[in-house]
Amino acid sequence: MKNYEYFEATADIGFNAYGNDLNEAFENASAAMFNIITDTSNVEAKKEISFEITSEDEVALLYDYLEELLFHHEVDFMLFSEFHIEIDENLHLKATVKGEEIDWDKHERKTEIKAITFHKMAVEISDTVKLRAIVDL
Q1: CB under 8 Å to 60, separation ≥6 — which residues?
Q2: Per-residue model confidence as pLDDT tens digits over 51-88
Q3: SS3 state of residue 76
Q4: Are 16 and 5 in contact (CB under 8 A)?
Q5: Which member of 47, 57, 64, 116 has the greatest number of CB atoms within 10 A?
Q6: What CATH number should be reported for the domain holding residue 21?
Q7: Domain range spanning residue 92?
Q8: Are 33 and 69 spatial neighbours (Cβ–Cβ below 8 Å)?
Q9: How many domains does the chain have?
């Protein structure tokens, strides 16, 4: 199973992220999002940030989580390359993400993400998990 794949959306870009469970799918969604911004293979795991989120359903949790990642990217001037997610049955997410401060001399500048959208966002859970998200560029 691939971790994620991109698809075209008018003036935006979308991705499907996959995992054997919700935790792994959220981790792969994180990687998909940050690989839109830069090549994460050049981002060292020097600094760790942890946060927690609780949402009313899986789609809202995905939206809130990606928004929180984008917030830390913009406010803390960080790029992330390692993601550890734990989601419990009450839709309480604990995230530990690792990365480093942005250095455009070191990191490849790809595309800026302006916002996460709810448009066509989906969480499909069966034997595996498929997440769908579109970001505004």
Answers
A1: none
A2: 999 999 999 999 999 999 999 999 999 999 999 999 99
A3: coil
A4: yes
A5: 116
A6: 3.55.10.10
A7: 4-136
A8: yes
A9: 1
